[in-house]
Structure to design on (112 residues):
């Protein structure tokens, strides 16, 4: 009897849990640019994490912005070009965990 209860609980947990990854952003630049006004530093990547309980955010209110800022800081850049992002969401009963990733080419603005 106990074994069947455990399998039933495991089955129900599997039904209400799930994970999905989807693209969230695609942008030519994080700031307006004039051709020739910047130099490319290389690839940059940033991440941010958030938690929600019953759909109410507990942490990570500004995930896309935080991931972008993390990418800029990691490359010591002024902006990003060819920007893409992904959102991964893991639903566990009443708790939702989300990871946001932003990638692009880091650039440094040139003074004219």
């Amino acid at each position: 009897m106990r074994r069947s209860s455990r399998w039933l609980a495991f089955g129900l947990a599997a039904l209400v849990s799930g994970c999905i990854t989807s693209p969230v952003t695609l942008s030519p630049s994080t700031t307006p640019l004039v051709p020739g006004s910047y130099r490319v530093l290389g690839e940059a990547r940033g991440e941010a994490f958030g938690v929600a309980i019953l759909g109410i955010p507990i942490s990570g209110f500004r995930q896309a912005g935080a991931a972008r800022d993390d990418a800029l800081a990691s490359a010591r850049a002024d902006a990003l070009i060819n920007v893409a992002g992904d959102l991964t969401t893991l639903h566990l009963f009443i708790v939702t965990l989300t990871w946001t990733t932003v990638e692009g080419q880091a650039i440094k603005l040139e003074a004219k």
